[in-house]
Each structure stands twice: as structure tokens, then as C-alpha cells.
Amino acid sequence: AGVLGDRIVEPLPALAASLGQAASNPVGAASASASSAAGGAPGGADGGAVGGGDGGVGGAGKVSEGTALEFPQDWLARFSQEELSNSAKEADKWLSMTKQAFLHTWNGYRKQSWGKDEFRPLTGKPGRVWANCGLQIIDALSTAWLMGLTKEFEDGAEWVEKSLEWKHTGLVSFFEITIRALGGLISAHSLSGKEVFLRKAKDLADRMLPAFRDDNGFPATQVDLQTGRGAGGWYNGVLLAEAGTIQLEFRYISQQTGDPKYAEKVDRSMKSILQAANGRGIIPWGLNREGTPRFTNAHVTFGAMGDSYYEYLLKMYLQTGKTEPAWKDAWKKAMVEMERRLIRNSSNGLTYIGEEVNGQLQHKMDHLACFTGGMLVYGARLLPAEEAGKNWESIAAGLTETCYQMYARQPSHLAPECITVRPVAPVGRDMDIWNNAAHNLLRPEAAEAIFYMFYYTGDPRYRRMAGEIMEAIESKAKTPFGYSGVTDVRQARPAHKDELETFFLAETLKYLYLTFLPNPRAVLSLDEFVFNTEAHPIRIFRPPEEKFLQPKE
Fold first, then answer.
1. pTM recorded for the entire structure
2. Where are the alpha helices (DSSP H) in 445-500?
């Protein structure tokens, strides 16, 4: 087991027996979620024991004939036992399909490009180089763990132990390496307790620390892992998401090692953003690279460049056991302004989140922005009831429906990268593809929103949404060695791009798999874990003091 401050990190039960590790009181197990109000949903819940857990396809959570399923009490307040049981049985085929998709991709990568950062799913050849760190392995570990895939997890762990070295020369993306590599390692540690993951993560974090600026605390866009030298990127400044989506990962290193320097660096970056905001909630995505923090453009978005900053404000508050209210207060202010300025409904009732450019609303919505629906219901359920916005859950439901429609309305049943919404238009014609952005990269954000909505409501319709998405991925994106992004979702049989992002295994399949479980709370409790923006579960730290590792001013 690993050390979390003065607490012992015990592995979740999925693989504990096969790894020979004790899990005397495993957090996130059925018994634990039964006593933890099952994800914080009102009315309490009993987490429940579900299915088996043999690690085979359709193993953990698979419904067998005659199995008496237990569901959270707040679900049963809205749906009957029969409705929930029938939904779980219907999802069996999707649960198996999702695990098979993971195994198909993992095995293709294992056979063709093992140890490479990415691979091409049509040819099996290596893809882009991120940091020569086996990024696909690291990014897939937490999904393998949650799926109960013992051999795959152990193969990955062995590669990390024997082969992972940070020897890449040249610049790497600070943001991407943080959320994918650092996030993947700390999550694998958080789930399994294996010391090697923390050791490799700390080595990586130490190599990245010199790239934080002294004047404003922002990280460089790129970093050389050999020298710590930072460099800029395509934008002459710092992206909001780059400076505001690194906190969970570095703070975990501080929590595990007791060394506050990692948390101090990333908390200062977030505080500098709030300094530039000067009391505003939603803010532009462009920041200056040097000097006193200030914004360098007037483009407000919950899509690319801005999105995960808002996500991390909420999650920083939750990561330390709700002991740092300043992050929550900033997030609440942003949600109030978002609802007033960016949330709109078409004449046909299509709820969407627009963007603001120089004070003017643009009716454009990235698929990336679909995470907002999940974030809103998550905040509504985990913030004190008196602080939750009265419309958050209805907005969350509306945004999630819109994101589902992005898929359902296309001939391929895969969503485009971005849409334009027509506020006034005939039924079925209020959504267009923006600027010909008709490609699909197998992104996770719609599946993410659907997962959170299902986790907190148990509504079978969300599971069916997820099932349709999984079936479209299976029928339109499958290749000899994995799954590929497609070029044009307007085609019934779109051409493959021969590209596969590591987030497909890290995020997309994980969120879908958890949604197909009879009761995801019995496998992973959101009272005990918080997802980073790459869907890597990180164990929540509850400090013994009122505050923990407050950054130096």
C-alpha cells in the first residue's frame, strides 16, 4: 500500500486479491459506498453489491439470470426495482462490448507498437511522439483496473517498472503530459497502492517544476524534461486551460510525499488566474506569459482553451475534502455568470452553451463543452444543498440531451467536433456542423456527461444514450488493431483517419463502461475519488487540519 500523509492507501478490491494486497476496508467497494451516502446523492443510498468481478469480458457488474440487484435508495425513489433491473440487463451487451473494445485496442497496441506513445489503429504502426514514455500504457492503466483486467494492468505495471524512463529530448506539452502521464501514474497509485507509480510520478513532477515562472507562477506551454527549460507554444501567451488544469495532479504528489512544493506551484498558478479575473466568474482563455497576470483576449468559452479550468475549480475544492472554500466560491460565481450569459435554448428547446467574443454571444458549441452537463450535476450533488443553483440540474439534463443529439442526428451516429445552434429554426434544423468541423476523434465529453447524469439519477434513458454511442463506435470506428477517429460524420460509413488518441482508452471507454454497470457507485464512489480531466480517479484527501498545504503568498 502507498502512503497518503499519515494514512495508508489501500487498493480498491477489483484486483487486490490477484495482486496479493490487503484491502481490509476498500474505499469504493460496495460496502464502502453503502456507508458513504453513495456519491452524495440526497436521501442516502446503499451502494449495493452488483454482479461478479472475475475480470473476464462482462465480468465485474455483469447481470446473471436470477441475480437480485441492489440499487441506491435515491434511484429507487424515482424508478421501480423492475425498471432498474431491466435497464441493467439491457446494458449487459454494452458492458461486454465496451470491455471487448478495450481489449481489442490494448491487444492491437500490445502486438504492434508496445511502449510507443500512440499507435495507428489501421496499420498498427507507431503514431505521434509525445514524450517517448509509453503514453498509451500509462493512460490506460486506471481503465484496466476498473474493468478488472488483471493481466493487462499487471503488464502495464511491469512496463512502467522496467522500461519507463524520462529520457525524451526536446520539448513536450506541459498540459498534456500532466493530465495524461502524471495523471495516469498517480491514479494507478491511488487505485492500486503500488509504490512504483508514485516514484515514477514524482520523478516526472520534479522534472517539470522548473518550467513554472517566478513572476506570475504560470507554467510554460512546453517543457524539456531533461533540463526543465520552459518554452512557449503556438499562442503568444498562456492558455487558461494550461494554467488551470494541472492542480489535481501536482497536489496529489504533495499529499503523498508531504512536500508542499508541488501544491504551492500549481495553487499559485490558479491564484494568479483569479487575480487576473478580479472578481469575474467566466473569463477569457488568453493570459499573458510574463509579468502581472492579465487577460490578452476577450474570448470566453467552455470549449477548447478554456474548458477544464472551470472543472478544476470545483474539483480542487472536493480533492481536499471540501476544506478550501475559495475554489468553490470562484466556481459558483462562474456558474452563475455562465447561466446568465452563455446558456441558451433554441425555439425547439435545445439547450446549449455558447461562447462570447468581444462581448457578443456566438451560438457555437464544441463537443469539448459537453463536459459541462456532468460538471453541473456533480456540483449540484456535492455542494451544500443551500449553495447549489436551482437550475443546475435541469441545465445539466438539457446540455446532456443536446450532446446526445449531436450523435443521434448524424448519419454515422457519431458527433462532429463542433456545432452551430440556430436559436430559431424548424424542428430538427436547429443544429448545424460548425465551419465544416465534421470529424470525430472519439472524444469522451458526451459520455462523461451521460455518466454523471446516470450516476446521480439512475435514469435508464442515459444508459440507452451511452449504448447508442457505443454501438456507433463499434460499427463505424473499429479497425484491425483498435478504433479510429473518422473524417466526416455526415457519411453513413465515414472514412477512418488512422489516428487514435490515448484518451479513448483513458476516458471514453471508461465513462461508457461505468455507465453500463448496474450500479457504478459500487465500483467507484465519487465521495472517495475525484476524476482528473483525463478521467483518472484520484483519491480524495481529507486533511486532519482545517487547511492543507496552503500556498505561500
1. 0.90
2. 445-457, 460-476
